[in-house]
Amino acid sequence: MLTRFTDTDTDIWPNVAAEYGYKLISMPYSVDGKTIYPFVDYDVYDYHSFYDSLRAGALPTTSALGEEEYYRYFEPEFAAGNDILYAHFSSAMTVSFDVMDKVVADLLHKYPERKFYSIDTKGITILSYLIVRELGDRLNSGMTAEEAVEWAKTEVDHYAQYFFADDLKFFRRSGRVSGLAATMGGLIGLRPVIHMSREGKMESIGTVKGRIQVMEKLVSYVEDMGDDIKNHRFIVGHTDAPELAQQMADMLHARFGDDLQIEFVCTNPTAGAHCGPNGVGVAFHSKRR
Predict the structure, then answer these.
(1) C-alpha to C-alpha distance for 222 and 210, rounded to whole angstroms
(2) Is the pTM of this model over 0.85?
(3) What are phi and psi of 285, to 5 degrees?
(4) In terms of DSSP bridges, do strands 29-31 and 61-62 run parallel, antiparallel, or are they unpaired?
(5) Is the C or the N end of the chain the one with fewer CB within 10 Å?
(6) In sequence order, which ranges of the chain are alpha helices (DSSP H)?
(7) In angstroms, rounded to a whole number, what is the distance separating the alpha carbons of residues 74 and 219?
(8) CB–CB of 233/261 below 8 Å?
(9) What CA–CA distance (Å, rounded) separates 101 from 288?
(10) What one-character DSSP code corresponds to residue 227?
């Protein structure tokens, strides 16, 4: 048997995970000294309340999973005679995967007949969401774990994500976006455009002044980079900004047609702690990263 895992940093909620048979690894965040595990400490993600707390001044932090947590997720599967396939957010963004690799090596030594397959989406939030869903479709249609790994070697780099942050203070504190320092001049209304690189890192690729203008810039990236987008899911993500997300979708429909299949997703709180509220992004099938 093969047990499928993904994690909450891919924006997968339990209902979608169940659709594909994924077990969810909960990636924690902390607020006011309290560590919270999404969909473990609560059943429903109240994203509006979470982002309202950020608007009110909360500055959540995030942390890596410990060894004992990876043992708790993986060892029961190996002990039951199951192999594991884990499709996860970018390993370049956290030391969690160094910890995981150590645990997996120990478990494979203990259970030498078992196999562990890792698929790095080299993304986070909606980019990972898109890849994990499209991978799940193939697994549900009979793709083997070995075939999934081979598919990912080429296809992961044919999905792209572009987004903007509304308030730079969250990224300033996290320090997770390369090339962002030059945009930190405090100019009013200046919004960085960020994408996920082939290395699985967030990179600032420019700045635009004004929300409408920055959304028009996102549309231009889709126009330049999109590949067969009408035959793949198209994801519009937001950090508690549904009206802006709908505006983004309207702009995309106006440019690419009403038959563009758009799905809306709200960014998970662990990633949202770094992005802040009122941001919007797009993820789609692309020519390249």
Answers:
(1) 19
(2) yes
(3) -75, 135
(4) antiparallel
(5) N
(6) 14-20, 47-55, 67-79, 96-110, 126-140, 145-155, 168-174, 211-225, 242-256, 269-275
(7) 41
(8) yes
(9) 28
(10) -
- Answer whether 276's CB lies under 8 Å from 170's CB: yes
Could you report the per-residue pLDDT of 237-278, keeping only the tens digit for each? Answer: 999 999 999 999 999 999 999 999 999 999 999 999 988 999
How far is Cα 149 from Cα 275, in angstroms, rounded to an integer? 30
- To which residue do tokens 């960085």 refer? 192
What is the C-alpha radius of gyration for the chain, rounded to an integer number of angstroms? 19
Distance CA(194)–CA(197), nearest Å, equals: 9
In the prediction, which pLDDT does 182 show? Answer: 45
- C-alpha closest to that of 27 among 120, 97, 118, 80: 97
Give per-residue pLDDT as tens, 32-75. 899 999 999 999 999 999 999 999 999 899 999 999 999 999 99
Cα–chain center distance at 137: 18
Return the residue matching tokens 């106006």.
Answer: 254
